[in-house]
């Protein structure tokens, strides 16, 4: 073990090497030195080794690849492309840096950032409207919880929105470029109420004996009380066995996606004209007079599914030639390529691939319909990240040559419910429901 004197000497030497080097931006060197002195990463820990490695290469202005970090920092062989160590520790280091600037570094003029999708330390002004697009940091996820029951699901989603700091002086500046992007500009230019639709799942009870509920049932074709009534009319043998419990549930990924999205929707809604409902409560007439923003799994679209995919290049996967829909797959109708999520069967400590789906188009009366969806949790989270990131929205707009009605698929690397990295794999302009 190090003694106090040896430890101080080692730390001082490392800081001096970084700060006094003639290589690199002196302001970046100074900020790195300040962070090492106060950052609390712990001497000799994996996070400390990772930080120093990134600092050295960033100051030298040399690009670094994931394989370099795996070999040099974590002593991996480089033969296992599925190993999640690098991305997990980058995620943890990013959180440590953010925590430092929330407390010890709050007064700093500049701050260190690890931009999403990159392996380097960069310098940004320590103000939210500069940092937010780089980090996409939402409010603390520890404050979230999901309630059971239809009313509970709506209240939970509304509570998430209410719990976000909506009244800070930086909110409007933070989302200025997002608001002006072609993706969202039509919602701002065509003032209407905004209907936020959460992709919930209607569940009902099954009874083996009268007066008891023995199990909970989820059927993809039964997405509301009306659907259950219709189902029982078609299957009279189930009457008395299937019981309406007035319950729905909301996937955690959709709730986490809302932490980024709700402050922005609150800002652009006119005079508080923002209403939150579940997909199981959505009625057809609501699609005519409101801007609609859907957040949730593809399998939670419910009545929106036909509306979204009626004039789309894409479709939910299905068995060929006809048969059961496979909601963990997105089908490109033109190329017949299938984008299949691995999220339902991830191996322990292994990165899995998920897919986000984004679409925006005119509804039947010139209202806008926005879909921020995915096959599973990190796919939905990626879609919400893109929708509130001005750089990502700019890249999406360029990919479709400025078309205001579009759709896109993103491939996402995830670990558990951590969105490690996402990239656009295909995008296209799409037709509107209304006459153009």
What's the short version?
By secondary structure, the chain is of the alpha+beta class. Helices cover 38% and strands 22% of the residues.
Task: Tell me what the structure shows.
The chain is an alpha+beta fold and 436 residues long. The chain contains 16 helices and 15 strands. The strands form four sheets. A seven-stranded mixed sheet has the order 7-3-8-13-12-14-15. Strands 5-4-6 form a three-stranded antiparallel sheet. Strands 9-10-11 form a three-stranded antiparallel sheet, with no helix packed on it. A hairpin with a 5-residue loop joins strand 10 (325-332) and strand 11. The longest helix has 18 residues, at 85-102. The chain is globular. The model is unreliable at 1-23 and 136-172 (pLDDT under 50).
Task: List strands and helices in order, with pairings.
Blueprint: H1 4-19, H2 26-38, H3 46-59, H4 66-72, H5 85-102, E1 110-113, E2 122-125, H6 128-135, H7 150-163, H8 171-174, H9 176-180, H10 182-189, E3 194-198, E4 201-206, E5 215-217, H11 225-234, E6 242-249, H12 252-268, E7 274-278, H13 286-289, E8 291-297, H14 304-309, E9 314-318, E10 325-332, E11 338-340, E12 352-362, E13 368-374, H15 377-387, H16 390-399, E14 406-415, E15 418-429
Parallel strand pairs: 3-7, 3-8, 8-13
Antiparallel strand pairs: 1-2, 4-5, 4-6, 9-10, 10-11, 12-13, 12-14, 14-15
Helix pairs in contact: 1-2, 3-5, 7-12, 12-15
């Amino acid at each position: 073990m190090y003694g106090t004197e040896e430890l101080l000497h080692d730390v001082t030497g490392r800081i001096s090497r970084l700060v006094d080097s003639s290589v690199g931006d002196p302001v970046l060197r100074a900020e790195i030195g300040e962070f090492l002195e106060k950052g609390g990463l712990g001497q000799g820990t994996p996070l400390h080794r990772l930080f120093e490695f990134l600092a050295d290469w960033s100051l030298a202005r040399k690009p670094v690849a994931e394989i370099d970090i795996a070999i040099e920092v974590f002593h991996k062989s480089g033969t296992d492309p599925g190993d999640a160590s690098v991305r997990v520790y980058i995620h943890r280091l990013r959180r440590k840096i953010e925590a430092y600037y929330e407390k010890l570094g709050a007064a700093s003029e500049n701050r260190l950032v690890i931009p999403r999708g990159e392996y380097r330390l960069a310098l940004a002004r320590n103000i939210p409207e500069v940092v937010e697009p780089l980090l996409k940091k939402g409010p603390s996820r520890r404050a979230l919880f999901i309630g059971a029951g239809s009313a509970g699901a709506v209240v939970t989603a509304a509570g998430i929105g209410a719990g976000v700091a909506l009244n800070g002086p930086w909110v409007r500046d933070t989302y200025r470029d997002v608001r002006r992007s072609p993706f969202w500009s039509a919602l701002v230019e065509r003032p209407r109420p905004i209907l936020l639709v959460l992709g919930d799942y209607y569940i009902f009870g099954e009874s083996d004996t009268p007066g008891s509920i023995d199990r909970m049932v989820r059927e993809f074709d039964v997405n509301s009380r009306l659907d259950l009534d219709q189902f029982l009319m078609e299957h009279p043998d189930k009457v008395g066995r299937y019981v309406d419990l007035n319950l729905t549930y909301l996937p955690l990924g959709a709730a986490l996606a809302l932490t980024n999205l709700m402050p922005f929707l609150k800002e652009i809604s006119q005079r508080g004209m923002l209403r939150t409902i579940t997909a199981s409560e959505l009625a057809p007439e609501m699609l005519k007079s409101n801007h609609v923003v859907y957040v949730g799994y593809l399998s939670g679209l419910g009545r929106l599914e036909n509306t979204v995919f009626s004039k789309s290049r894409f479709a939910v996967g299905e068995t060929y030639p006809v048969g059961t829909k496979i909601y963990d797959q997105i089908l490109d109708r033109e190329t017949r390529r299938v984008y299949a999520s691995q999220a339902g069967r991830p191996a322990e400590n292994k990165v899995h691939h998920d897919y986000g789906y984004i679409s925006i188009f005119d509804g039947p009366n010139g209202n806008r319909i926005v879909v921020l969806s995915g096959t599973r949790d990190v796919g939905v989270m990626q879609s919400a990240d893109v929708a509130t990131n001005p750089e990502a929205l700019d890249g999406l707009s360029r990919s479709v040559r400025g078309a205001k009605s579009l759709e896109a698929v993103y491939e996402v690397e995830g670990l558990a419910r951590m969105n490690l990295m996402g990239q656009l794999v295909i995008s296209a302009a799409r037709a509107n429901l209304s006459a153009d």
